[in-house]
Specification:
Low-confidence stretches: none
Shape: globular
Oligomer: single chain
Number of domains: 1
Helix content: under 10%
Distance between the termini: 41 Å
CATH architecture: Beta Barrel
Mean pLDDT: 90
Number of strands: 21
CATH class: Mainly Beta
C-alpha cells in the first residue's frame, strides 16, 4: 500500500511538473491591424471612357489576431473586417445586405507537431483549418495581402522539414453546406464579386505537393498543384452544376539566389488537363529577372514574364496564375490577371525595377512595364487587324516607417494604353481615354503584444 501511494505521488508530481513546464513555455501573441487606403481611380483595372469621372474613396481593413504557441501545438485565429468608409449609415443599420457585410473569419487553424521537440534537425507537423498559403515569391500561391480582404483557404497541410529541405502536401474539399446527399458544389459565391482574383470559378477541391530547398541567399522549389472545378451544363443560358469535376494540373520550378552583387530569379511552369469550362488545356509560364545591387541602398534590374495565350483548335493555351498575388508582378494598376479580364491571348511583360532604400525608415521604388499580348489579337475595323502591344505602365511608390508599428505608404501609376487594349477582344472600352491614372495613400498600424 505504501509503495502504491508513493507511485501515485510520483505520477502526480510528474504530471504537475509537465503542466508547469507547458504553462511556462506557452506564449500568447495578440496582434491587431488597422489599415486605411485612400485611392484616386482614373482608369485603374481598365481605361475609362471619355468624360467618365474619376473615383475617390477610402477602404479600411481591421484585424484582430491571436496566436497561441505551446508544447507541440499552435493555434491561430484572425478576425477581419474589410469595408469602404460610408457604406454603412452612421447609426445602427438594420438593412445592411450580405453583399456589404465585411466582417468575417479570415483565419482559424491549428498546427500540431507530430514529432517530439527533442528532434532539433527535423520536424513533421499538420496544419488544418482556414489558413493563408504562401509559397516562394507568391506568383502562383500567395495571400494576396494587397487586397483589403486578402486570400485564405480551408485546407489541411502536412509539413516535413529537415535542415535545408522542406516537403509540404496539402488538400482542400469545398461544399456549400452540410448536405444530406451528394457533393455537388456551386462555385459562384453570393454578392457582387468573383470567386478568384482572375475572375474565374471557385475550385471544388485541390491537392498540392511542394518541395523546396534553402540556398545560401535564396531558395529553389518544385510545385505540383492540381485543382478541380465543378462540371456543369447550360440550360436556357443558365449554368446548372452537376456531379463530377474537371481537373487542372500545374507543375514547374522556381529559383532565386544572389551571387555577390547580382540577384537572379527564374521560374517555369506548365499547365494541362481541363480548365473550369471543361476545355482541354495546354499552357505555360516563363519568367526571369536579374537585379544588380550598386550599393546596399540602391538596386535596379530587368526582367521578362511570358504567359501563353490563344488556342489551338479545341485546346486552350491560356495560362492561369492560380491563386497568387498579381498586383506584385504585372503592374500596380491591376490590368492583367486581376478582377478585370483582358482576354485570353496571354501576356508578355518586359520590365525594369529600381529600388532606393537608404535606411529601414523609408524607401522608394520605380518600375516601368511594356505589356503586350503573347498571341496576336484581332482588332475589328482596322487595316492591321492583328496587334500585340497593350501599352506601357509607370509605377512609383514610397514608404515611410514612423515606428516599427506604424507606416505610411503612397504611390502613383500611369498607363499609356493602345487601341488594342481597349478593343472589343480585350478590355472592350468604347471611346476610351488615351491614358489612365491611379494614386493612393495608405496608413498601416500593426501593434503586437506578447504574453508568456
Amino acid at each position: 500500500m505504501y509503495t502504491k501511494k508513493l507511485c501515485m505521488k510520483a505520477i502526480a508530481a510528474l504530471l504537475s511538473a509537465i503542466a508547469i513546464h507547458q504553462t511556462s513555455t506557452a506564449q500568447l501573441t495578440v496582434a491587431a491591424q488597422l489599415r486605411t487606403r485612400t485611392e484616386l481611380r482614373d482608369g485603374q483595372g481598365a481605361p475609362l471612357p471619355e468624360n467618365a469621372p474619376a473615383a475617390l474613396f477610402t477602404s479600411q481593413r481591421t484585424r484582430l489576431g491571436l496566436l497561441y504557441n505551446t508544447y507541440r501545438i499552435k493555434l491561430g485565429l484572425t478576425i477581419q473586417d474589410a469595408r469602404v468608409w460610408g457604406q454603412d449609415v452612421s447609426t445602427i443599420n438594420k438593412t445592411t445586405t450580405a453583399d456589404n457585410n465585411g466582417l468575417m473569419l479570415h483565419e482559424a487553424w491549428a498546427e500540431i507537431l507530430l514529432t517530439d521537440t527533442t528532434l532539433k534537425d527535423q520536424s513533421l507537423s499538420f496544419k488544418v483549418g482556414r489558413q493563408e498559403l504562401v509559397y516562394d515569391d507568391q506568383r502562383l500561391i500567395g495571400n494576396l495581402d494587397w487586397l483589403q480582404q486578402a486570400r485564405r483557404h480551408d485546407a489541411g497541410v502536412l509539413k516535413y522539414e529537415r535542415n535545408k529541405w522542406m516537403l509540404h502536401a496539402g488538400v482542400a474539399f469545398n461544399q456549400n453546406k452540410e448536405n444530406a446527399s451528394g457533393t455537388v458544389y456551386n462555385p459562384v459565391p453570393p454578392g457582387n464579386y468573383t470567386a478568384s482574383t482572375n475572375g474565374g470559378a471557385m475550385y471544388k477541391s485541390f491537392e498540392f505537393l511542394y518541395a523546396g530547398r534553402k540556398l545560401q541567399k535564396g531558395n529553389a522549389s518544385f510545385l505540383l498543384f492540381s485543382d478541380q472545378f465543378s462540371k456543369y451544363h447550360t440550360d436556357s443560358s443558365t449554368k446548372v452544376y452537376q456531379a463530377g469535376t474537371w481537373s487542372r494540373l500545374t507543375t514547374g520550378f522556381y529559383f532565386n539566389n544572389q551571387y555577390g552583387k547580382i540577384g537572379t530569379t527564374a521560374s517555369a511552369y506548365y499547365q494541362f488537363g481541363k480548365n473550369s469550362n471543361g476545355q482541354q488545356l495546354s499552357a505555360g509560364l516563363l519568367s526571369g529577372f536579374v537585379q544588380y545591387y550598386f550599393t546596399k541602398s540602391f538596386s535596379t534590374g530587368a526582367g521578362v514574364d511570358y504567359t501563353t495565350g490563344g488556342s489551338n483548335g479545341t485546346t486552350s493555351n491560356a495560362f492561369d496564375p492560380l491563386y497568387g498575388t498579381p498586383h506584385k508582378f504585372w503592374g500596380l494598376m491591376d490590368y492583367f490577371y486581376a478582377a478585370s479580364p483582358f482576354g485570353k491571348g496571354g501576356l508578355t511583360d518586359y520590365y525594369i525595377k529600381t529600388k532606393f532604400k537608404p535606411s529601414d525608415k523609408y524607401w522608394l521604388t520605380a518600375d516601368v512595364h511594356q505589356f503586350s499580348s503573347a498571341a496576336s489579337v484581332i482588332v475589328p475595323g482596322t487595316p492591321d487587324n492583328k496587334k500585340k502591344s497593350f501599352g506601357q505602365e509607370i509605377d512609383i511608390t514610397g514608404t515611410y516607417n514612423v515606428t516599427k508599428q506604424i507606416s505610411i505608404e503612397g504611390g502613383y501609376s500611369h498607363f499609356f494604353s493602345t487601341t488594342l487594349l481597349t478593343s472589343p477582344n480585350v478590355k472592350n472600352v468604347p471611346n476610351a481615354k488615351a491614358g489612365a491614372n491611379w494614386a493612393y495613400v495608405m496608413i498601416n498600424i500593426k501593434p503586437e503584444f506578447i504574453f508568456k
